[in-house]
Structure formats: structure tokens, C-alpha cells
Amino acid sequence: MEPPSIEPLSGLLITFNSVDTSIIVAIVIMAILLMSSALISGSEVAFFSLSPSDRDTLNSEKDNASDRVLGLLNRPKRLLANILIANNFINVGIVIISTYLVGNLMEFEKGEKFLEILITVVGVTFLILLVGEVIPKVYAANNSMQLAKFMSFPLIVTGKVFSPLSELLVRSTSFIDKRIKKKGTDISVTDLEEALEITEIEDVSDDDKRILEGIVKFGNTDVKQIMKSRIDVIAYDISTPYDELLKEIIESGYSRIPIYMESFDQVEGVLYVKDLLPHLNEKENFDWTKLMRAPFFVPEMKKIDDLLKQFQESNIHIAIVVDEYGGTSGIVTLEDIIEEIIGEITDEFDDDDLIYSKLDDHNYVFEGKISLIDMYKVLDIDGDIFEENKGESDTLAGFLIEQSGKIMLKNEKLNFENYTFVVEAADKRRIKQIKVTINERVEE
Question: Positive or negative CA dihedral for 325, 263, 317, 253?
């Protein structure tokens, strides 16, 4: 008696069909798609994990692959859209081919449709995650530079193929970006200052801390607060003879000088001293006004961070500050803006004694025209108390006039918080010199 025949995997209710040419082709296509999915997924990690030092290395190499990588990184949104679209198309192809393989390679008993779906869905998902996502991304994290160079050309090709779709995807996400930015958390300058004060950073010098504080306050400073007042500006009338102008310029020591007509409220241009160098031997009747450059006007309330951008874009270093009535308030230079971050920049023409003198650690003598911001720097204080109590004034003399309600005369005294101000010199029109004493706080 012959033993009964047992079909393979009959316990699993699955029967395998014979392998023909179509099955082999489908398996080969499946392998190619899995490899493509792995490369595309790995390239996402490879490109977006490149550090600034890696980019510097790519810049220095100067080969085609490096140039392609840098070109793709210059448009990160389009690169990401290209990767996602290509990966999705490949994964859809894997699902289609796997469904074809399962349907033609395996026979399921009637009523076992659930088993077919389970093998197709779970098996293919596991295969895509393992081979197409996990393994390539782990490899890419450790070999980002090599993989990015290898995939740079294929991504450029796929980017051209999927250009309409990637463009649509990028444009559609711009709306979401705007909404997210609007809902972002607003951090005030005060919050940043407090965070800087409570943060203890070791190995950071006082100069570095001062620069950080300057950066924090940078965007909240008006041009009016740092400008040089019109009474301190060296400027010349447009009718000044050439020989006299040369003498005055040499004595002043400035490289850019405003030129006005009749009064400083009518600035006609700015004369750059370097433009005069080729004409030093000209005669008295030389028309130097043709060398003037067009003046750049800014309002008093303009923020200095915006002005710095304009200076950079326009390649200029000086601006004429005007008030709300169109009159000239003073000038502001690129040096004035930079000093708000890094501190005072002293050259051979600067004279600190004209601004202040230090008597001891608690007593100073200031010129009345000194700006409050400069006084804060000299006294090494944040100046919040003064900023909270001042009105429209930006100078020390203006602050005393606001607090006292009059133009204080010589020897008059004003107490404010733990500071005592004594007028050292004044006339009927302005306060010229002020002695500032820092009193010790009395703890309650």
C-alpha cells in the first residue's frame, strides 16, 4: 500500500506555481526598484546631514560632483520635493510588482484571501522599510559625502523629469510656511536680554558678552540714538573756494564730508576726500562740486539694522539724518552702526576727552551732547532705568531737561535713582557739561 502524497506547505494552504520568464523579469525589476528606493532614501539623509565643514570641503574640491551637490543644496525645498516624489513613485512600483509576484507565484486555497492580503501588505511593507529605508539611512548617516556625490547626477535627472510636480509641491508648501511663521512664538528683546543675563557661559570673555548684548539690542536702536548731531558735524558750503576747502579738509581729518547750500538743512551732496586726490594740483577756480556724490537721506526713527542692510546693498558708508519736517538732524556712518555691536572704534582723529573724563570709579564728567547709549557704555550699565523714564531725548543734556522741566543752570543738581547729576557748564540755550556721581545703593 502506497503512502498518501503530501503537498508542500499544505498546512499553510499555499501552493507555489512554476517559475517562468515573466516571474524572473518581475523579480529583477523588483530588485532594481528596491535598490533605487534604498539609494533615494539614503540620499535624503546624505544631503541634509552635510555640515558647514563638509560644504567648505566641497567648495575646495572644485570637481563636477561637488559642484552638483552644492547646486542641489542651494535649493533645499526643491531637492526634498524631488526625493519624496521619486521615492513615492518607486514604492508604488514595488507594491504593483509585489502584488503581481504574489498573485502569479502563489496559489491560495479558497477562503484564504486574508492570508494573501497579509503576505502582500505586511511582507512588502517590511521589505520596503528594511531594505528601502532603515539600512540605507544608517549607511548614509556614516557616509554622507560619498553618497551625496554618487546620487547628485541621478537626482538632477529625476529633478528634470519630475520638475512640474516638484514645482507644484514647493509652491503649495509656501502657503503653509507663511501660516507657521505667523503663528511662531515672538521673543522680545527683553526676553533675550534676560536669557543672556541668567545664562552662565564659561570661557567667554567680557568683550564677547558685550558683543552678544550689542547684537541683542541692535535691532531695537534708532538712528537718532547713535547719530552725530548737526552741531558736531563738519560740513562745507557749496560755494567754498577750492584752496580753502583743501585746508579745511586737512584740518578736519574726515574722509567723507557733507556739502550744503546756504544752510545745513539743504545738503546737496557728500564729498569723498579720495575723489580729490587726482586734483590736488588744480587751480583755485577748479570746480570741485562735480566730484560730489548724491546724498543718502534716512529718517531719525529708522532702525539701525535696516540701515546696515541698505549700506551693504548700496555700498555707501554715510547717511544724512533728517527729522519729520525735512530738516537735517545730523549724520550717521557705518562706523557708528558697527560700534553698537563691537564697542568703540578709536582712530588717530578721535579724542575721548571731548566726550567724557573719568575722575574715579564713581565720578565722571560728560559733555551734555553725549548720547545716552554712549553714557551707558562708559558707565557699564544696561540703561533700562533711563530708557523707561526718558521721553524723546537721546542725549544726557536732553534727559536732564526732561527730568527737571527746564534748562538747568551751572551748579544745579538733579538726583535720579542712585545717580546725582551736577551741571558743570551751561548757558541760556543748552547744558554743556555734566558731572555724574554713582551713589551706593542703600539696601532696605
Answer: negative
Please list the pLDDT of the chain residue by residue as tens digits (444 residues).
Answer: 444 444 444 444 566 667 778 888 888 888 888 888 888 888 888 888 887 777 778 888 878 888 888 888 888 888 888 888 888 888 888 888 888 887 777 776 655 566 667 777 777 788 778 887 888 888 888 888 888 888 888 888 888 888 888 777 777 766 666 555 555 445 555 555 555 555 555 555 665 656 666 555 566 678 888 888 888 888 999 988 888 888 888 888 888 999 999 888 899 999 998 888 888 887 777 889 899 999 999 998 888 888 888 888 888 889 999 988 888 989 999 888 887 776 665 555 555 445 678 888 889 999 888 888 888 888 888 788 888 888 878 888 889 988 888 888 888 999 998 899 999 988 878 888 999 999 876 444
